[in-house]
Amino acid sequence: MDPTAPSELVLLLVKIGFLALLWGFVLVAVRAVRLDMFGPTKRQQRRQPVVARAPSPTPGGRPERVRTPRQSPRPAPAPPTNPAPSRLVVTKGYLAGTTIPLGPEAITIGRAPDSTLVLEDDFASGRHARLVPHDGQWFVEDLGSTNGTFLNRTKVTSPMPVPLGAPVRIGKTVLELHR
């Protein structure tokens, strides 16, 4: 027997260690694919920080007053004159210059072929984010993406209103709402 040759026990331990490392890699890869396809689990969603938002003001910007019978009725304040956005514009990324007209339906964004805006971006998930209209305003919502969605450099953890011209970043792609 050659004294420099490794023993059978050492070879067996190396084989078992290599096999464990290989299975660990497979499990991490499967988890990443599952997360990309189906989003985070309830347990993973609980780990995300909760962002408190200030209560939305009334349309006139002042607290509501209860009218008593002695008060004369006042005309309702005029609605804001800011027209709603009419298009979604890709300002940076592979699809820069692309414009999507906005309608009453939600816009899905991601690498999936059935998305409204299909991104050719390695940092975007299959179903990455969604823009949803509600009461004349558009909200961005992250759909459990791996790399996150950002509105004005703030990570989107719950539906957030998107102001006109505010950058929405998904990977290397930047989107904005325009009139």
Describe the protein's architecture and organization:
The protein is α+β, with helices and mostly antiparallel strands and 179 residues long. The protein has two helices and eleven strands; from the N terminus they run ααβββββββββββ. A six-stranded antiparallel sheet has the order 2-1-11-10-7-8, with no helix packed on it. It has a five-stranded mixed sheet with strand order 4-3-5-6-9, with no helix packed on it.
Note the topology.
Layout: H1 8-38, H2 42-47, E1 87-92, E2 99-101, E3 107-110, E4 117-118, E5 129-134, E6 137-142, E7 149-151, E8 154-155, E9 160-161, E10 168-170, E11 173-178
Parallel strand pairs: 3-4
Antiparallel strand pairs: 1-2, 1-11, 3-5, 5-6, 6-9, 7-8, 7-10, 10-11
List keywords for this structure.
single chain, 179 residues, alpha+beta, six-stranded antiparallel sheet, five-stranded mixed sheet
Could you tell me the mean pLDDT?
81
Spatial order of the strands forming the largest sheet: 2-1-11-10-7-8
Tell me the strand percentage band.
Answer: 15-25%
State the order of secondary-structure elements, H for helix, E for strand: HHEEEEEEEEEEE
Number of strands: 11
CA-atom Rg in angstroms: 26 Å
Give the low-confidence spans.
48-58
The proportion of residues forming helix, as a percent range, comes to: 10-25%
> How many separate helices?
2
Task: Provide the structure class.
Answer: alpha+beta
Largest sheet: 6 strands, antiparallel
Tell the overall outline.
elongated
Question: How is the quaternary structure best described?
Answer: single chain
- How many angstroms does the end-to-end distance come to? 83 Å
